Amino acid sequence: MDQIEEMKAMIREEIQSISDLEERIVFKNLMEGVFLELYETNVKMYQMLEERVMNDLVYDINRYLIRTGLVERSYMDKSHHLMSPMCEEDMESPVYEVSDVRRKLKEEGKFRVATVFLQCDALEVREILKNQEGFTGIIKAGKEYSVEIRLEPSKRYLEQMEHLYHLFMKNGIPWKTINAPYLFKMVDICITSLPEEAEDKEAVTNFGGDFGEYNQFIHYDLIPIWNVWHLKLESVGFPVACSDHENYEHVISIRDYGTGHAYLVEEKAGIRSVRQSGEKLLVTGKIANAKKWDVYMIRSGSDHKIDRYTYPVMENLRKDGFAERFQGKTGQMVKTKGELERFIRGFGLENYIEYQDCVLEEESQELLETYPMNFFMEDEIRDRKGKKRLLIYFKPKGKDRWLLRDLASFVTSEVQELYPEYECGGKLV
After folding, report:
1. pLDDT (tens digit per residue) in 225-270
2. Pair 216, 127 in one domain
3. Same domain membership, residue 336 and residue 233
4. What is the pLDDT of residue 164?
5. Range of 357's domain?
6. Which end of the chain is more exposed for a tag (fewer CB within 10 A), N or C?
7. 395: three-class secondary structure by DSSP
8. Which residues pair with 188 in a beta bridge?
9. How many domains does the chain have?
10. How far apart are CA 18 and CA 25, in angstroms?
11. Nearest to 177, CA basis, from 390, 354, 349
């Protein structure tokens, strides 16, 4: 029971204790008309003050929340209110001939015939990519032909992730690591040789691969999805010259898409700032003419009851409270184990992995169990030689054990931004 309800209960008890009817009526009117009204107004004003202080501290840390998932191609609805394919080409069924395969082999030495998902632990993914002896493939192009194949990490999705990072930088938005465990398990099946007898004009109608003991991990026709949508939007009206006589302000309408979402704008010529004002985006830059803009909408909202996801949807959500915003405003460093534990628990991943402890070790040649999810962020200032290692121990709790080291990699990638002077990694215990 909150304070206002407790106050009302006390008043009701006091009213019941007054025996004189007229005095009871006067007291009741006084309490309802003056005291309770004043009290509720005071509570509302305090809440408004609290909200203003929170907003002044720093922007909503979860406004640019990124969600990632993985679904079967046949279940993906392009009209989904929240999620869309990371690569639009995944929704297409490519048609190609033997001549196309030969041309790619001549130009690049390989031809990507399919992209598959490896449903296994991060260490097993590492092992599969390292030991590929005995992998064989068969393509059907009129007849069936044996082909040499190999598996390679699928760079298409990782490039999308890196592109989003650069968009954040261009728009002046602080970057938060994307919790994207599935992207690091997507691999391309590449043909590396083709028999001479295969006829160029024959269409390739089927492909099959044999990966030996790893066949159980291979899943076809799964596509990564996220809540980022690429839009092409036109300027509204004419650009307005700014007072510096160098830049112009452009107006982009987002009325058709909603003001509750976050928006990022891309422009090769460069932009100085992007602001959202109601149903408009205000873009300032040196572009003098009205044009079409590449706008990326980060969609917010909740899942519908009928939504179905093959695998759990992951978020880079952080608990949003006064301590988090004050720390972000002041740039306060995380110095104690208790503060580090609070930071890690802020991601709400205790159903999968639970923080246990951390230790500082001397530089080690031993491979870490985790990997950097911010692989595209290079430290060009600090020398990596002689760095100590900050090792974080996690207790596995989730039933999807094949996913846990990837989630630990997400957490340690965020911790790495806190401690650039160390090499940060994780270990399941």
Report:
1. 999 999 999 988 888 888 877 888 999 999 999 888 999 999 887 7
2. yes
3. no
4. 96
5. 318-428
6. N
7. strand
8. 115, 152
9. 4
10. 10
11. 349
